[in-house]
Amino acid sequence: MATINKYARAFLFLCMSCAIAVNVAAQTTPVTPRARVAVLDFGETETGRRVADKLSALLSSNAELSMMDRNESRAAALGSGHAGSLNMTLAEARDLGAAIGCDFYFTGDAQTLRRSASERPVFYEAYVALFLVSARTGRLILWERPSFEANTPAEAEELLLAGLSTTVARLPYMRQIRRAQEDEQTARSLAQSHGAPVIEDAPEEGDAAAHGLRLPQPFRRLRPSYPETAARVEAEATVDIQAEIDAKGEVGRVEIVRWAGFGLDEAALETVRQLHFRPAMRNGAPVPLRVLLRYNFRKPPKQ
Length: 303
Known about the structure:
Layout: H1 2-28, E1 35-39, H2 46-60, E2 65-67, H3 70-79, H4 90-100, E3 104-117, E4 120-134, E5 140-144, E6 147-150, H5 153-169, H6 172-193, E7 213-214, E8 217-218, H7 228-231, E9 237-245, E10 251-258, H8 264-273, E11 277-278, E12 280-282, E13 285-287, E14 289-297
Parallel strand pairs: 1-2, 1-3
Antiparallel strand pairs: 3-4, 4-5, 4-6, 7-12, 8-11, 9-10, 9-14, 12-13
Helix pairs in contact: 2-5, 3-4
């Protein structure tokens, strides 16, 4: 009987130890909060309203997301002065996110257009230019422009909404949100542990810091290509890139600080990475410098 009690006490102690371990693990394991997501307007058209309503309803079923009230988000966006721009600086995009109080937001433009072509009769195209933005960094983390064609406006819109349902079901937006959360956490950890290297920003002309400074000069001025993804919609926008030029004139870290989507950001980045500079000089000595490079994209003239 004593032996049985001894084993019983040992078993009870083991169970209690396991319970304590599980409880401690539950208390120490960080719980990722649900991402607060806002869906803003997609233009003033009926197609835009239907797309925004559909997207919001589809995302609401995801337990990892906390959807912001549409009316409150709209009012906050309007109150911040946002007029539906899809060509924002990081600061403008962050300010908009802060006004809404979200972690990420969707914005864009959706329309149904009457089309005609020489090889086919009149038809209708329904499209959505969809932008997913991180409110914390202001970065554009995803853009896409699905479009559908049909013989009537109603048919084209229904195809667009059905396509949106299929896309959301494949979870590409959720994957981008998770990836952005991980990247932002990593960036914060690195900044806390190592700190950011100090590289001077190029001063404004006339500033005292500009005295004795010669800015970097590219050996060749390269022009970005106008990508087919932009040509299909005749997109026109400005892309700003902040580039660090080292004391040898080589391009280091680059960051898009005004985004545009439609493949224009990638075209500008590709061009910047091909550049070589005469380095900045201060009082005759080469110095690293952070400069702003601006690319204005305009649709090419029709041949």
